[in-house]
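Backbone-to-sequence.
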């Protein structure tokens, strides 16, 4: 099919706009990576944009060798794995139960869940509720409040309703219990949906800094994103990193010239961002499908 001149111009404009969008997304990441791989004192002079001028891994040695960051990483990894698993399990149970159209009070329950999506009590009542439940300043403050997602439940329910009813009915006729139907029929057919929502939930847990900043005061319980938020607002390295071997070495001698607060910040950003970025290529096909889940009925 031969394109007209106006169509070619339109396609060219679209390509240019997409290239500009890609550059606007990739350049900040490349800049932070270059700063993190450059000696801090040299980067402070300016002129480092895409490639490091004085290559060094010392910034990462300081970050990865710090006990505070190591512990924050463990909290983040544990929170992401446990929170994603529990969130998928509880939300799937609710979606499966509410997918039965003949369920008693189904409409009232769906309406109640919908209201929670539209309205909330605010931060202070939420904090009081967490305090009364003894969740403040505990690891479970990251897990239990986000164990159920109304939005994810509606997405799951829409997907489950798209599964042919004949499969469920045949399993029930063979004597399968609801849990057996869920385990043997629904879950195997819902793997793309579960992978997509699991990815969204995992990214939410990994990137969340708010809960650690407002609901946790114990530094041993903060996740890496909350630590990064503290580091970005810090004026001195030792304020956040504490008095460990790396900081003492920096204070003693020649290593001070290799790092600055900015280079440590950029290295921490890279360390906190790269792991979750590595997950996307493996779940990319589910990511696109997850955006479309619930938009049309199969």
């Amino acid at each position: 099919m031969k394109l007209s001149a106006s169509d070619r111009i339109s396609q060219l404009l679209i390509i240019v706009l997409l290239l500009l969008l890609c550059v606007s997304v990739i350049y900040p990441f490349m800049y932070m990576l270059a700063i993190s791989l450059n000696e801090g004192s040299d980067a402070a002079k300016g002129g480092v944009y895409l490639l490091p001028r004085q290559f060094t891994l010392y910034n990462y040695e300081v970050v990865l060798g710090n006990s505070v960051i190591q512990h924050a990483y463990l909290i983040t990894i544990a929170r992401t794995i446990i929170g994603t698993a529990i969130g998928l399990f509880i939300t799937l149970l609710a979606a499966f139960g509410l997918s039965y159209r003949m369920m008693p009070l189904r409409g009232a329950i769906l309406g109640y869940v919908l209201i929670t999506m539209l309205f909330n009590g605010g931060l202070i009542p939420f904090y009081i509720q967490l305090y009364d439940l003894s969740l403040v300043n505990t690891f479970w403050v990251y897990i239990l409040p986000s164990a159920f997602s109304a939005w994810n439940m509606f997405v799951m329910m829409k997907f489950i309703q798209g599964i042919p009813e004949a499969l469920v009915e045949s399993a029930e006729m063979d004597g399968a219990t609801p849990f057996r139907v869920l385990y043997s029929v629904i879950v195997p057919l819902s793997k793309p949906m579960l992978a997509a929502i699991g990815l969204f939930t995992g990214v939410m847990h990994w990137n969340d800094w708010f809960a650690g900043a407002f609901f946790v005061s114990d530094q041993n319980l903060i996740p890496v994103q909350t630590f990064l938020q503290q580091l970005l607002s810090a004026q001195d390295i030792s304020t956040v990193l504490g008095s460990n071997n790396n900081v003492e070495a920096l204070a003693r001698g020649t290593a001070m010239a290799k790092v600055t607060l900015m280079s440590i910040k950029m290295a921490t950003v890279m360390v906190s961002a790269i792991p979750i970025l590595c997950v996307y290529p493996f779940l990319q096909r589910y990511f696109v499908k997850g955006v479309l889940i619930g938009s049309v009925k199969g």
